[in-house]
DNA sequence: ATGGTAGGAGCCCTA
C-alpha cells in the first residue's frame, strides 16, 4: 500500500516550510507538486531528503510552471510530454519499482475570457487537454495514476455555484467536455469522487476572496485518477481543506488517496 | 461591470 498526494504549491521555494510541515504531519509516500516556479536545480531537495524523501523526478523553468514528484519509495524518471507545444514544464512521469506509472500534470489556467478567438490562452488550454486525450487514446494506460492541477472543475458540485460559473474559465461546458473526453480516452476513474461521491468538494479558493472559509467560493481543480485496471485499489481519498488556513498558504490544498498495490 | 490578492522577475506577466 502507498499513499499519494497532489498539491499546487505556488512556489516551492517560498513554501518550503509548508511542504516540510505537510510531509512531517501526513507522511504521504509520494507528493506531486505543481507550480514550483523554480528551475529543478533550485528546488530545496535537501530539506525533503532529510524527511526521507530521497527521490525526486522534476521538470522546471524560471518563474513559471514546474512539476515535481517527491517520493520516499524508489522512482525512476518516465519522461515528459510538451502538450500543445508550449515549451512549458507542465508534465512529468515517474515509475515505481512495482511498475506503476505516476503522471503529474499542470494544465494551463486558460486566462480570463472563455473564447479562443479573443484569448489565445484559452485555446492553448483546450489544445493541451485535447492532446492529453489523444495521448491517452494512443497509450491505453494500465497500472497508471494521473494527478495534478487540471484547472477544470467538471461536476456541478465541484464549484460553489454551477450556474454562476458556467461562463467562468474552469467550469465552462467546452472545458468540461474536453476533460471528460480525456478521462474517457484513458478509461480513467476519478478516485476522489469514487470515494467521496456526494456533496460540494473544493481544492482551491481564490486569494482575492478574503474570508475564504466563510464565503467558501471554492472549486475542485485538483484531481487523482487511476487507470481502470487498478481503480479498485484506490481508496481513502481526502482533501485537506484546513491547510488553506495555514500561514502564507497556497491557494490550493492537497488531495490524497491510498492504493493497495 | 468591477476589483479584489499573490508570486516572481525586475518596472509586467501569470494565476
UniProtKB/TrEMBL annotation:
Cofactor section: Mg(2+)
Keywords, alphabetical: Hydrolase, Magnesium, Metal-binding, Plasmid
InterPro entries: AP_endonuc_1, AP_endonuclease_F1_BS, Endo/exonu/phosph_ase_sf, Endo/exonuclease/phosphatase, ExoIII-like
Pfam families the record matches: Exo_endo_phos
Gene3D superfamilies: Endonuclease/exonuclease/phosphatase (3.60.10.10)
Domain Endonuclease/exonuclease/phosphatase as annotated: residue spans: 5-252
Keyword Magnesium attributed: yes
PROSITE patterns the UniProt entry points to: AP_NUCLEASE_F1_1 (PS00726), AP_NUCLEASE_F1_4 (PS51435)
Family designation: Belongs to the DNA repair enzymes AP/ExoA family.
Identification of the protein by name: Exodeoxyribonuclease III
Organism in which the protein naturally occurs: Paracoccus albicereus
Amino acid at each position: 500500500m502507498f499513499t499519494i498526494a497532489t498539491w499546487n504549491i505556488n512556489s516551492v521555494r517560498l513554501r518550503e516550510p509548508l511542504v516540510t510541515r505537510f510531509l512531517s504531519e501526513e507522511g504521504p509516500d509520494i507528493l506531486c507538486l505543481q507550480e514550483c516556479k523554480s528551475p529543478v536545480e533550485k528546488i530545496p531537495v535537501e530539506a525533503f531528503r532529510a524527511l526521507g524523501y530521497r527521490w525526486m523526478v522534476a521538470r522546471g523553468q524560471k518563474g513559471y510552471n514546474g512539476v515535481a514528484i517527491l517520493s520516499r519509495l524508489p522512482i525512476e524518471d518516465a519522461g515528459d510530454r510538451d502538450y500543445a507545444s508550449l515549451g512549458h514544464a507542465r508534465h512529468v512521469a515517474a515509475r515505481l519499482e512495482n511498475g506503476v506509472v505516476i503522471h503529474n500534470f499542470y494544465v494551463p489556467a486558460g486566462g480570463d475570457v472563455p473564447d479562443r478567438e479573443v484569448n489565445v490562452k484559452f485555446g492553448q488550454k483546450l489544445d493541451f487537454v485535447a492532446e492529453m486525450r489523444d495521448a491517452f487514446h494512443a497509450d491505453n494506460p494500465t497500472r497508471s495514476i494521473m494527478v495534478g492541477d487540471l484547472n477544470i472543475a467538471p461536476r456541478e458540485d465541484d464549484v460553489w455555484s454551477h450556474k454562476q460559473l458556467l461562463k467562468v474559465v474552469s467550469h465552462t461546458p467546452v472545458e468540461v467536455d474536453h476533460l471528460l473526453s480525456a478521462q474517457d480516452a484513458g478509461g480513467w476513474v476519478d478516485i476522489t469522487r469514487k470515494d467521496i461521491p456526494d456533496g460540494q468538494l473544493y481544492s482551491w479558493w481564490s486569494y482575492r476572496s478574503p474570508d475564504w472559509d466563510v464565503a467558501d467560493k471554492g472549486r475542485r481543480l485538483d484531481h487523482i485518477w487511476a487507470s481502470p485496471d487498478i481503480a479498485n485499489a484506490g481508496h481513502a481519498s481526502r482533501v485537506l481543506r484546513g491547510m488553506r488556513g495555514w500561514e502564507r498558504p497556497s491557494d490550493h490544498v492537497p488531495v490524497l488517496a491510498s492504493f493497495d498495490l
